[in-house]
Amino acid sequence: MGSSVSQASAPPPPPPTYASTPPSFVHAAADVAAPPPKPHEEEATEEKVDYLNLPCPVPYEEIQREAFMTLKPDLFEGMRFDFTKMITPYFALTHSVAMGSIDIPAQKSGVIKIPTSNYEFGANFINQKTMLMGRVAHDGRENIRVKHDITDNLSLKINAQLTSEPHYSKGMLYFDYKVSLLL
């Protein structure tokens, strides 16, 4: 449990083998010649950018959310614990526990802090064309997100929030179509 970091690198080269006695370090520097200079053709060339085939930017509807996530850090008073267990390379289960307080403005200049807690269980399925994410909270709320690439240019997205309270459930369905502009 906890986070782990791993790094893989090539093994070190084997030590040099000498047929007879190893060369002395005093004369080794004088005996070794400098490598010849590389010709200009072999130098790294800068790749040209094809501006007509750049990846799609963030949709206009999501610019405000992207700016909000970048400019306002997720700071709160309390604690949060997220645990994700990969079952297969495509399927994972998640648990999330949060404890903190909600600030409610009082009639005077102060605020009233009400302690809150939340537990969510979730399941994720992600492969090359489909992403399914579901979360169930301890109070019965369900959040569902679906993204499916129908073709290379057409994708389907579904977001839904279901609650036990009447008139608070909502859903959104939309299609994204990517076009290439030929000038």
From TrEMBL:
Keyword Transport among record annotations: yes
Sequence segments annotated as region (Disordered): 1-48
UniProtKB keywords: Membrane, Mitochondrion, Mitochondrion outer membrane, Receptor, Transmembrane, Transmembrane beta strand, Transport
InterPro entries reported for this sequence: Porin_Euk/Tom40 (IPR027246), Tom40 (IPR037930)
Top-level taxon of origin: Eukaryota
Start-end of Low complexity biased regions: 18-33
Annotated Gene Ontology cellular component terms: mitochondrial outer membrane translocase complex
Membrane topology value: Multi-pass membrane protein
Record GO terms (molecular function): protein transmembrane transporter activity
Coiled-coil intervals: none
A Pfam family it matches: Porin_3
PANTHER family, per database record: MITOCHONDRIAL IMPORT RECEPTOR SUBUNIT TOM40
Entry protein name: Mitochondrial import receptor subunit TOM40-1
Gene source species: Zea mays
